[in-house]
Amino acid sequence: MATATTPTQMHDQLAKPSVAKPAAPVHSEPAHSEPGVPIIGRINWPGLRTLYVKEVRRFFKVQLQTVWAPAITTLLFLAIFTVALGRGNLTVLGVPFNSFLAPGLIVMAMMQNSFANTSSSILIGKVQGTIVDILMPPLSPGELLVSFVAGAVTRAWLVGLAVWGAMVLWPGVSVAIHNPLAVVFYGTMGAVMLGLLGVITGLWADKFDHAAAVTNFVVQPLSLLSGTFYSIDRLAGVWNTASHFNPFFYVIDGFRSGFIGIHDGPVIGGAIALALINTALWTLCYWALRTGWRTRQ
Prior knowledge:
transmembrane helix; mainly alpha; two-stranded antiparallel ribbon; ABC2_TM; 2 strands; cell membrane
């Protein structure tokens, strides 16, 4: 027989709180990767970007010295030669001398500042003892090289754009671009070449006098004797032949052709020569960074 439920018992049952069943545990992903699972992929993009930004900020913080001062110096070259030779009817390669001179001055300033950026960055790190900043982080030699050279190319193009912008307003000088692809290609190849040379110089040098010696006895002579101020067709004999062994000549000639549409040397041969030179320099720089040449002493 069923037992009757009294009103009091029924009230107690209704008033008694119900107890919820515990929920099944939820398995969440661990906050960190499991041991043995690589966090950085084949390319350390955050590290590469960080070093590049550091290089750009380093020279841009003193932009008056690293960007505008070289631009003003280049414009002084243009002013001097304009006054000395540009007021007559002098033409070179069929164009007025001022218009022939201007593109060479632009890319010459770009290359010199690309060299100064990488060489000074590495050398300052060695002198101040902060070279460990590029030896300790998880960056491969290739990533280090890309960051350094990219920073140098950025500075080179900022200087080039500053000079070009001023020359646009310069009376009697035409810097209208005839072939943008040639301007970008040869300007970038020249900046990369000197950026790589600056890496080698920075690793080799122990003090600023060593870097200055490379600038004074290698970079400056090759720049001034590269056909910036003249056509190599006016050179005879051994000097004409020697000019074709100067890699700066191919950069300046190709860059200038992007403005005036005329080459002073071989087109395809110059592009191939620059590609081979940059490949050789890149390989040398990669080996030096990989082995710690003159940095782990």
